[in-house]
Design goal:
- The protein has a single domain, classed as Alpha-Beta Plaits.
- The protein contains 2 helices and 4 strands; from the N terminus they run βαββαβ.
- Helices cover 19% and strands 34% of the residues.
- It has a 4-stranded antiparallel sheet with strand order 2-3-1-4.
- By secondary structure, the protein is an alpha+beta fold.
Length: 80
């Protein structure tokens, strides 16, 4: 998968799908998600998907949301 045509996303599972975490991950892989991290306890999967396939991930049963990964920068603490 070419990086310029792909994006890193965070997929959040719906509460009712938490007991089927592995099954939903398998369906996400089948839909084109290259999984890089599975955070089962909080119901989040991180991975890379081509731009054209992101919407198909949202249609998988058990998926609550698919959001692009965002970088957050915090200011350094003030000096005392």
């Amino acid at each position: 998968m070419e990086k310029k045509h792909a994006e890193t996303v965070l997929v959040t599972l719906a509460d009712h799908a938490m007991s089927r975490f592995s099954h939903v991950v398998a369906k996400l892989r089948e839909a084109g998600l290259q999984v890089s991290s599975e955070m089962e306890k909080i119901g989040v999967i991180k991975g890379t998907v081509s731009h054209g396939k992101r919407d198909s991930l949202k249609k998988i049963d058990g998926v609550a949301s698919v959001e692009p990964e965002r970088e957050i920068r915090l200011a350094p603490p003030p000096e005392a």
